[in-house]
Amino acid sequence: MQLAVKNLEGQTVGQVELRDDVFAVPFNEAVVHQALLRQLANARQGTSDTKTRAEVSGGGRKPWKQKGTGRARQGSIRAPHWKGGGIVFGPHPRDYSQDLPKKMRRLALLSAISSKVTDSHLVLLEDLYIGEAKTREIATLLKKLEIEASALLVLPDVNTQIVRAARNIPKVATQLARCLSVGEVLSHRYIVMPVSAARQVEETFAPHGS
User: Fold this and answer.
1) How far is it between the farthest Cα atoms of the chain?
2) pLDDT tens, 11-51?
3) Cβ–Cβ under 8 Å, residues 127 and 120
4) Statement to judge: residues 138 and 189 lie in one domain
5) What are 119-173's pLDDT values in tens digits?
6) CB environment 41-50: b (16+ within 10 A), e (fewer)
7) How far apart are CA 71 and CA 13, in angstroms?
8) Helices H, strands E: what count in the chain?
9) Phi, psi (5° rounding) for residue 92?
């Protein structure tokens, strides 16, 4: 497939041919949904914990005798219905992680990227660089590209200047091409990447044997 390439001034300067099996994959909603749920689940720490009546301090003896007081029978001041008592059915540390076959993870990511192409929300640049690590540099670039919504800047290599300049802009994030995830692609309306990053996406995520 052929996609337009822009310069840093927002002008179209040519076209580039990209792989159909990476940037023109039919959108598979079920797989994308499953991959996104997996990513969100794997991000959970699962460290929430509450104490049961066996774990809270105190309550080692019966508060009063069983009969003759006129009060309801009680066995411990740390029963769940007492203040300071144990918690019933509270959270305890657990592993929320989910697994998903590698081919399905790849299909989900390529479906998400291809949907950006279909919606004309993938912006290809001949190169991506800034003069200095200033927020206004990235803000000016996005304005020239006519991007007013959230954007993900995909980089071929680590670029501390771009990362530092972009991190102060709300809804703008940066990520390496080889580390893209479904959640990042779907949570930003526009994907901005130089051609070199697009080539790295092809090299990293293209189906084997094609």
Assistant:
1) 94
2) 999 999 999 999 999 999 999 999 999 999 999 999 999 99
3) no
4) yes
5) 999 999 999 988 888 999 999 999 999 998 899 999 999 999 999 999 999 999 9
6) eeeeeeeeee
7) 87
8) 7, 6
9) -135, 155
Reported as a pLDDT band with limits 50, 70 and 90, residue 209 is low
Q: What is the mean pLDDT of the chain?
A: 93
The pair of structure tokens assigned to 21 is 């099996």
For residues 90 and 107, state if they share a domain. no
**Same domain (yes/no): 75, 20:** no
User: Is there a domain that residue 210 lies in?
Assistant: no
Q: Are residues 107 and 52 in the same domain?
A: no
Cβ atoms of residues 23 and 4 within 8 Å: no
**Of the candidates 179, 174, 177, 168, which has an alpha carbon nearest to the alpha carbon of residue 199?**
177
Range of the domain at 86: 48-95
